[in-house]
Amino acid sequence: MATKLSARQWPHNCFAGSWQESVKSTPTTRAIILQAWTDPLPDPDNLRQDLENRQWGNIMGRSEQPLERDGSPSREFGFWLRDLRNTSGLTYNQLARRSRYSISTLQEAASGRRLPTLSVVAAFVVACDGDEASWRSYWAQLKRLEDYAPSAIQPQDVLPPWIRFAPNADPDTASVLVADDWYLESLEVALSLDGAVPETVEHRIAVAVKDGVRELVTSISVPRITHDQLSPHGLEAELLHGGVLTQQQHPHESYFRYVILLPRPLRVGERHRYTMRLRVPPGQPMAPRYVQVPHRRSDHFKLTVRFDSSRLPRIVWRMAGVPTAVLTDRDPNSERLTPDRFGEVSAEFHALRLGRAYGVSWRQ
């Protein structure tokens, strides 16, 4: 009968040569044994998962799920770790050999579920020929942000050290060229607050930065205001043209995610126009603002808000690149806007900075 080994015993028994006596010999296990003798010493806490991956033929480890950026430190860090690995051209199997960490540990580090340990980050970065000192600094800053109260988290104020700006651009004002499948060339939004429910019509132009872009993923946050006790919290979405809305996800109470299947794959540099209509459900109050907080390159944003002309807000102001922590401030220091005789105000922005808020806020 085969001897059952604990997770802590696996490495010793593998490399001592006694594993053959406790595992039935098959072509698969023989291949595993040969690999065990040639690979660096694995991480004991993750060896069991790696062995399962190998035995089922999954040499590359578990398939990597898409990562939706929500601005949190762990998601941002996971996104950029993935970008580093993609840029290096390494598979997870190759990365594991170089870093001496298991495939599952490395995939977990880039999952965005939590910040990985600094030792894993250092090994990951060095294996990908990244700048270890810059990554250590970036990890430390995001770790401090993650330790704050949720309302104080501002990961977007810490730009990753390896991102590239346009040539001769001013880092304080330039739009960042982030690693992604596509970027937003233009977003034009008309928000109507004079109807039965708040409604937006959003015209977007996306530009592919690589060949074969088949879908666009966009996300929208509808924050719950203090006195809103309704359950559930909702948002109605409709794609008016430019593809098919294949997925409408609601992973968090105030966070909505949409996947748009394109009519055909885009080539690098190709532009694609699409339009969405969004409605807040009847009876659900809306926070007194509309902002865009880009987590990918965004070149242009124009917003028009139409208030009920018979019940105009007391004050309206423009927000241009402000930290999201100040969105709820009631004493704005920003430019004041005056609605016209139809109750409309407009604001326009160019070369938006990652993670900063752009839009219009008001107070009744």
Question: Keyphrases for this structure?
Answer:
364 residues; alpha+beta; 434 Repressor (Amino-terminal Domain); Immunoglobulin-like; 2 domains; 6-stranded mixed β-sheet; 4-stranded antiparallel β-sheet; 9 helices; 25% helix; disordered N terminus
Summarize, please:
The protein is α+β, with helices and mostly antiparallel strands.
Outline the fold blueprint.
Elements: H1 10-16, H2 19-22, H3 27-38, H4 44-55, H5 73-88, H6 92-99, H7 103-109, H8 118-127, H9 132-147, E1 164-165, E2 176-177, E3 182-192, E4 199-208, E5 213-221, E6 236-241, E7 244-252, E8 255-266, E9 271-279, E10 289-292, E11 300-306, E12 315-322, E13 336-337, E14 344-350, E15 357-363
Parallel strand pairs: 3-11
Antiparallel strand pairs: 1-2, 3-4, 4-9, 5-8, 6-9, 7-8, 10-15, 11-14, 12-13, 12-15
Order of helices and strands: HHHHHHHHHEEEEEEEEEEEEEEE
Q: Which structural category do the helix and sheet elements fall into? A: alpha+beta
Q: What coarse outline follows from CA principal-axis ratios?
A: globular
The tally of beta strands, per DSSP, is: 15
Describe the structure.
- This protein is of the alpha+beta class.
- The protein folds into 2 domains: 39-160, lambda repressor-like DNA-binding domains (434 Repressor (Amino-terminal Domain)); 176-363, Immunoglobulin-like (Sandwich), CATH 2.60.40.
- Helix content is 25%, strand content 29%.
- It has 9 helices and 15 strands.
- A hairpin with a 6-residue loop joins strand 3 and strand 4.
- Helix 8 runs antiparallel to helix 9 (132-147).
- The longest helix is centred in the first third of the chain and has 16 residues, at 73-88.
